[in-house]
Amino acid sequence: MLKLTYTERSFYLECLSLSLEEWVAQRVVLAMRVGQSLHVEPSTASFLLPADLPGLEMLEAAIKRHDTEIMALSRCDAEYMEVTLRGSWLSDGTQEAVGVFVTTMSDRTEFFLHKIWQEAQACASALSE
User: Fold this and answer.
1) Which domain of life is it from (predicted)?
2) Which of 20, 45, 69, 83 could bond 101 through an S-S bridge, CB–CB 3.0 to 4.6 Å?
């Protein structure tokens, strides 16, 4: 399962070993125990990756083999690729873009996407120093 946590300024991508159903059930129980509203709805999430990252070709091949219904990769321009995922959005129900997006796909595709995202973050950190 992939979990994208969106904050006011950025997002963080995690690869979790729990099933989507287990994770959502735990989140519902937590919200009930702390008295927090929780809204779950089908949604999409998108983010950009540098187009020159190694491994993008392998990710594209994995998507074509297993996950075309869940994930799409498209070129934005010469520098960036857009990743679009289908899954579920969990939030407190406010109109803010703060919440958690979760999706599940083949283990291979999840692994490649998470690895490539980590490489993009490392490159961005190196450039900002």
Assistant:
1) Bacteria
2) 45
